[in-house]
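Changelog-adjacent note: as of this version, every example in the card shows the full chain rather than a window. The one below runs 107 residues end to end.
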Amino acid sequence: MKGRRIRVEFAGTRALYPDLKQPGDYCGPLIGWTADRPAVFFLKPNANDPQAPKRAHYIQHVCSPPHRFTEEMDGTLTIRDSIGDKAGKSSVSDGWHGYLTKGEWHQ
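Full-length structure tokens:
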């Protein structure tokens, strides 16, 4: 799935909560939401799937470290390592585990 990198709006120096609407939308990296660690926020490709677990329908994020964010020449992002399907130590899967590479989501 081709993702959309959404521009972040600011109120002064503070980034407003990301306005992500479609599966595959992502924004960041942003600092200030996860202490001093940069974070990328996203809706996973299965966010509108009615069969997906409830958690898949909500905005999620990954932080650096341990993830690495690379802004590509075309303005898209690549995130490494993989984006997991479980939050923290949760054993509940959101149904999607994979990668964002040059703005494209793949498992």
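Structural remarks: Residues 2 and 78 are 12 Å apart (CA to CA).
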